[in-house]
Automatic annotation (TrEMBL):
<comment type="similarity">
    <text>Belongs to the RRF family.</text>
</comment>
<dbReference type="Pfam" id="PF01765">
    <property type="entry name" value="RRF"/>
</dbReference>
<feature type="domain" description="Ribosome recycling factor">
    <location>
        <begin position="21"/>
        <end position="184"/>
    </location>
</feature>
<dbReference type="InterPro" id="IPR002661">
    <property type="entry name" value="Ribosome_recyc_fac"/>
</dbReference>
<keyword id="KW-0648">Protein biosynthesis</keyword>
<dbReference type="InterPro" id="IPR036191">
    <property type="entry name" value="RRF_sf"/>
</dbReference>
<protein>
    <recommendedName>
        <fullName>Ribosome-recycling factor</fullName>
    </recommendedName>
</protein>
<comment type="function">
    <text>Responsible for the release of ribosomes from messenger RNA at the termination of protein biosynthesis. May increase the efficiency of translation by recycling ribosomes from one round of translation to another.</text>
</comment>
<keyword id="KW-0963">Cytoplasm</keyword>
<dbReference type="InterPro" id="IPR023584">
    <property type="entry name" value="Ribosome_recyc_fac_dom"/>
</dbReference>
Length: 186
């Protein structure tokens, strides 16, 4: 393994951590409806747990209402129950083959709780990034120990890894700030 291999591997893993954070933040409700809100919900479909997107179509009716159009009439009740039982606190209303999912307005207290959740998710992502930095630095130390690179090369590589870490941490901070503003917006 070379310095470049360690750097590119670390950058790839850091990108994955950032994508995971973005995915997690997109699931946090902001009072406005968006189709990605129901992405993580799974329903039982012929004995197997299946993502909602594979048994129904999710559309926006307006800024505060989602419409879920199931493809099989028999799945309407199952989908409605899955949405109701999810951790989103939603109360769907069945209307034949389609289901309306109104978004209740968030209270000030709930908004503050959600910002705490956003900050915690961001901190988890930062910890993951720092762990990747540590792993990269350990790899560099191993290369020095095996006499594959000099200590000067190790120092330069550690500086590069640190700059990469700083870049991703600042990106996480931006995401958190944006999401907090989105959550607190009435």
């Amino acid at each position: 393994m070379s310095i470049q291999d360690i750097r590119s591997s670390t950058e790839t893993k850091m990108n994955k951590s950032l994508e995971t954070l973005q995915s997690t933040l997109s699931k946090i409700r902001t009072g406005r409806a968006h189709t990605g809100l129901l992405d993580h919900i799974e329903v039982e479909y012929y004995g197997a747990m299946t993502p909602l997107s594979q048994v129904a179509n999710v559309n926006l009716l307006d800024a505060r209402t989602l419409a879920v159009q199931v493809w099989e009439k028999s799945m309407a009740q199952v989908v409605e129950k899955a949405i109701r039982d999810s951790d989103l606190g939603l109360n769907p209303q069945a209307m034949g083959e389609s289901i309306r999912v109104p978004m209740p307005a968030l209270t000030e207290e709930r908004r503050r709780e959600l910002t705490k959740v956003v900050r915690a998710e961001g901190e988890d992502a930062k910890v993951a990034i720092r762990n990747l930095r540590r792993d990269a630095n350990d790899g560099l130390k191993k290369l020095v120990k095996d006499k594959e690179i000099s200590e000067d090369d190790e120092r330069r590589a550690q500086d590069v890894i640190q700059k990469l870490t700083d870049q991703f941490v600042s990106e996480i901070d931006k995401l958190i700030t944006q999401k907090e503003a989105e959550v607190m917006k009435v």
